[in-house]
């Protein structure tokens, strides 16, 4: 009797174990696969922050969330341009100096001119590619030329930002691309980039690069020539616009540093992290128009006294 009971007990226990394993397997098989981590989009509608400044005085004409911290994307290449132009004016660099492309620069993705390792171009040609094509490979090549490494150049960028009073800005890259694993985002505000833009406009050559709408890179090499086209759609479309720079990647949205001159007066507009390109362009143009309307009226020169002829009696 005990033997029969023991046999039934063991058989029942085995059955329960099989059922339990089946239920566990079924639960595991039906569980949803983990979703990939989505990157946080910070772009706002119509933007994250914006500001309009009188270039002559630095006076803020209009602002809306100008201290909201966002990602500048390729607009940060304005700091690259500023540092290069300052080095040229300090006679530490010349426009015709050669820039030799490193292996690192040749492998940078995103917007580029497809630099090949050991190619050589002048600083001047590189600056056109930096501003017109927004070439990330060129940003790396120039940084290495000036500072020896991208890390050392980033230190120069942050030092200059602090000198300009850009207290909410921290750079981690020379190009503005989204960070890779273990890296951090470049961070800034509309107000800080207005300070940078105004400083850049003190340099006469800046607008020569930023106002160029189209230019060939490697014009004598038909096979590898790149026809560079400026990403700023307001150039040539809105009165007086001659710069400065646009930027985009998914999490950041669209940003622009815009400037225009009309009747001897210049306005700077920064639109940071807009969710939509059409909204970004429209808002930038709208803020530019409002900025010019908000400028103090220029005093008209006093009319010269009328000249009289003949002898007074």
Map the helices and strands.
Blueprint: H1 2-30, E1 49-54, E2 60-64, H2 77-89, E3 98-100, H3 103-106, E4 120-122, H4 123-133, H5 136-147, H6 150-163, H7 190-200, H8 206-210, E5 214-217, E6 226-229, E7 241-249, E8 253-262, E9 265-274, H9 277-294
Antiparallel strand pairs: 1-2, 1-9, 3-4, 5-6, 7-8, 8-9
Helix pairs in contact: 2-7, 4-5, 5-6
Can you give a write-up of this model?
By secondary structure, this protein is α+β, with helices and mostly antiparallel strands. The protein has one domain (49-294): Beta-lactamase (3-Layer(aba) Sandwich), CATH 3.40.710.10. Helix content is 37%, strand content 17%. The chain is built from 9 helices and 9 strands. It has helices at 2-30, 77-89, 103-106, 123-133, 136-147, 150-163, 190-200, 206-210, 277-294, and strands at residues 49-54, 60-64, 98-100, 120-122, 214-217, 226-229, 241-249, 253-262, 265-274. A 5-stranded antiparallel sheet has the order 2-1-9-8-7, with helices on both faces. A hairpin with a 3-residue loop joins strand 7 and strand 8 (253-262). The longest helix is centred in the N-terminal third of the chain and has 29 residues, at 2-30. It is globular.
Label this structure with key terms.
disordered N terminus, 313 residues, 9 strands, alpha+beta, Beta-lactamase, single chain
Radius of gyration, in angstroms, nearest whole number:
29 Å
> Which fold name corresponds to the CATH topology?
Beta-lactamase
Name of the CATH superfamily: DD-peptidase/beta-lactamase superfamily
Total strands: 9
Question: What structural class do you assign from the helix and strand content?
Answer: alpha+beta
Distance between the termini: 154 Å
